[in-house]
Amino acid sequence: MPELPEVETMRRGIAGMVGSRITAACFPRETRRPIAMHPTAGVMRRRLVGRTISAVHRFGKRVAIELGATDERSAAWLIIEPRMTGLLLLVPPPTSEHVRMELAYDRGGQGGAVAHGRLVFWDRRGLGTIRLVDRRGLSAACGPDRLGPDGLVVSGADLAHRAGGSRRAVKVALLDQRLVAGIGNIYAAEILFRAGIDPRAACRRLTAEAWERIAGEARRVLAEAVRLEGSTIGDETYRTADNRSGRFQRRHRVYGRARQPCRTCRGAVERIVQAQRSTFFCPHCQWQPGRLRRTL
DNA sequence: CGTTCAACCTGGGCGC
DNA sequence: TGCGCCCAGGTTGAAC
To answer: What is the DSSP pairing of strand A36-38 with strand A129-133?
Structure first.
């Protein structure tokens, strides 16, 4: 589920935890398979409790909660990867089932005021992951070998340089986190529609100008989706940290709209499958370089 | 190099 | 109502 805008919304939603101290951590195992985590729950708990949160980052589609160094312990990062259905919630989850992690935190205020609360990682399908890493682990998991430039700041030159010679279809390339970080199935479709590029076009056929258009639309679409707090679709599996819906779904032009009229040309939006994922696009408004543009 | 498939899971929607 | 099937915002590793 969550792509860059949803994960960035999660990050902002929990950014108020900075300065708080973790007082308890639990990792319920009541589900069939415990969440994929490293290290084990006991070690994780021991390393988390008592630590102060010094920052909350986002790397692509992952949130990283930074635990500041102390005299005894060096800095560490709790990397949470929501995958399809993971949510970070500061309010009680819909059910206690599927809670994969719960952190209690408090902040000793001046004059006896204590702010405290709970952060829950709630993940229905359980495909998400949790890792606690040191500085080296962070760079192995989220460094430039793993993640390309962030989608909010990617340039046409970045894309052209890294993918320009590839025979891959441009939609498949945009899902590759090493090329550009944060784009998933929804936003790849929306970006290519706005750029007017056919998702099946081979990267090596795209001109520098086409890459500039794709990068520009990526920055614009992702920034707008962040402003609208992401996309909540259908069964509402995505919610903000305080349990509200995103609003970018109202701006979707092609995603999930197979056989419905294109909002620009009124032709039917098509659904095809690329790399085992659905791709939605308008064959009239999106074309491949070198091919005659279809006319109505 | 690039594609395809399976796997990891739960749950909603649809046709019959 | 129930059953079987398809679908879903992601990632990884193996096989070809």
So the answer is: parallel
Q: Is the CB of A167 within 7 Å of strand B? A: yes
Report, as residue numbers or ranges, the catalytic residues of A: 2-3, 61, 277
Report residues 230-269 of A contacting strand C, contact meaning Cβ closer than 7 Å: 230-238, 246, 249
Alpha-carbon distance of A230 to A142, in angstroms, equals 22
Inter-residue contact A50 to A21 (CB < 8 Å)? yes
Could you check: is the Cβ of residue A172 within 7 Å of any atom of nucleic acid strand B?
A: yes
Longest dimension (CA), chain A: 72
Residue A129 dihedral angles phi and psi, to the nearest 5°: -135, 155
DSSP A237-251: ----TTS---SGGGG
pLDDT at A289 over 80: no
Q: Phi and psi of A159, rounded to 5°?
A: -70, -45
A151 close to A4: Cβ distance less than 8 angstroms:
yes
pLDDT tens-digit series, residues A205-235: 999 999 999 999 999 999 999 999 999 998 7
Total-model pTM: 0.96
Rounded-to-integer distance, Cα A146 and Cα A137, Å: 12
Tokens for A95, please give them.
């059910």
Structure-block tokens of residue A119: 């952060």
